[in-house]
Design brief:
The complex is a heterodimer of chains A (169) and B (419). With 169 residues, chain A is of the alpha/beta class. Chain A has 8 helices and 7 strands. Chain A has a 7-stranded mixed β-sheet. In chain A, helix 7 crosses helix 8. The longest helix of chain A is centred in the C-terminal third of the chain and has 15 residues. Chain A is globular. In chain B, 59% of the residues are buried. The radius of gyration of chain B is 20 Å and the shape is globular. A 5-stranded parallel β-sheet of chain B has the order 4-3-2-5-6, covered by helices on one side. In chain B, strands 16-15-14-17-18 form a 5-stranded parallel β-sheet, with helices on one face. Chain B has a 4-stranded parallel β-sheet with strand order 10-9-8-11. In chain B, a hairpin with a 7-residue loop joins strand 12 and strand 13. Chain B folds into 2 domains: 258 residues, 2-Layer Sandwich (Aconitase, domain 3), CATH 3.30.499.10; 146 residues, 2-Layer Sandwich (Aconitase, domain 3), CATH 3.30.499. Chain B contains 14 helices and 18 strands. In chain B, helix 2 crosses helix 5 and helix 11 packs parallel to helix 14. The chains are: A alpha/beta (169), B alpha/beta (419). Chains A and B meet through helix 5 and helix 8 of A and helix 2, helix 3 and helix 5 of B.
Amino acid sequence: MKIKGKAWKFGDDVDTDAIIPARYLVTTDPQVLAAHCMEDADPEFARKVSRGDILVAGKNFGCGSSREHAPIAIKGAGLSCVIAHSFARIFYRNAFNTGLLILESPEAAASVQAGDELEVEVDSGTIVNVTRRQTYRAQPVPPFMQDLLQAGGLMPYVRQQAKTGEKRS
Amino acid sequence: MAMTISEKILAAHAGKTEVHPDELIEAKVDFALGNDITAPLAIEAFRQSGAEKVFDRDRIALVPDHFVPNKDIASAMQAKILRDFAREQGLTYYFEVGRAGIEHALLPEQGLVLPGDVVIGADSHTCTYGALGAFATGVGSTDLAAAMVTGKIWFRVPHSLKFVFRGKRRRWFGGKDLILYTIGKIGVDGARYRAMEFAGEVIEELPMSDRFSMCNMAIEAGAKVGIVAPDSITEAYITGRAKRGYQVFQSDPDAFYETVYDWDVSELEPMVALPHSPEKVLPVTELSEIAIDQVVIGSCTNGRLEDLRQAAEILKGRKVARDVRCIIIPATQEIYRQALAEGLIETFVAAEAAVSTPTCGPCLGGHMGILAAGERAVATTNRNFPGRMGHIDSEVYLSNPPVAAASAVAGRIVHPDEV
């Protein structure tokens, strides 16, 4: 699994109210949520993002509430991945459960600048900064987690597994 | 092997004699909950899983509390999803407006979460129940859905941090101040993926309501759980409430802690967290002339009867400053009823505060007290991120209830002794 995209850079402690303000939590529609992703930090963010772009942030990304609307909004906005120095605990689980790829890479978080072109080799956990000709390491995502992400999250993955199981028996 | 209370609870729920930090385990869930924001997604995921019945209709609570009484059509549609699901599944613990309250005040009050439990909730402040000696943690909607199907959840066993508080608390210095002080010291990711265990002579004499406030904000330091070992104060609270049996666990004296913090709090004054982070903490005595537009007293952090009593003690015979709106929200219907019986509501109304039926409302900028651009509030809530209570250019200062009440009277942030 390989992804390419332009970097959007944010700082430390990006909280879930910043990712998707609570006033929009009266819906679970990914497209509606996506339209308001990061809007208090940058009102034009959702419109400016191109499909496949990558969000890069500092430490403790996704701190605050347990709202799964946060990874859903990021994914819905077309971002392919979030790279951060570290992630808040609940957000980390929620991201995989909803099929959003996230990578911990303190090196990338420190070096990537807004607008850099990045290439991510998910199997090996390698992040190449094409713009700056740098390479950073992240923890690789094991194959079963990649399958889970490609299925679109935990529930579709479990459903898929159940169906495969039915065929086998 | 010596274990902490968190490790012992997880071991017991994983059917193991011992567990180690970083070990992945599957634990039995004693109780699971969701609210009007998170449960609709969980119910959608529950359907996706193909399951037809929840694992146990007596061990799941659905509590519409964030946008209730419903503020608009969209929020009413969300709440209806909970109501319909609760009826379809025959859930014993669905709490309707008028018989409910804020989930993290309501479930302990109703004796549904108990010492030694593993509790998961699709709300980050689920860690509140650690005050009872439970391993309670917030999860997302998909994890809640999986637990509703299977009655189990996987965990990575967290490392434990111990916080020992010594000395004697000054008047007006409570659980909220202890946790704000702690977050100010270690930062908003100072306990990321850790269990925070609160102990020491200050905790041993600390009332339940203050313990709830402390554990409630463990998540604000990034923690998985905040926990206090059960004692006679816990026992007194549980007696007459517990809806089922429970088991009490204690940390072994030689249990391993990644870090032990040891603080004497005798000289400390009430704490305030400045915008826009719960880690920007200063003693209230170090703030000067910060004028305010609004005060909110309530939330899962500080909407309990003891909190309202403290606020009433300050507001009795006084009036809210002319340029301030003071909103007081009892956290549950039962707290509201007791506040009525004790004359607290009369005191609030006479002081020209607005009193609301239980709701999370303004805490998360939902409704019932949203801030305009440039406005500033003092709130007894738990988060003061940019835009948390309204416009992105508004500000929230976090404090305990007496500081909030005194500030409402003074029109600026003050120590309770100043009014």
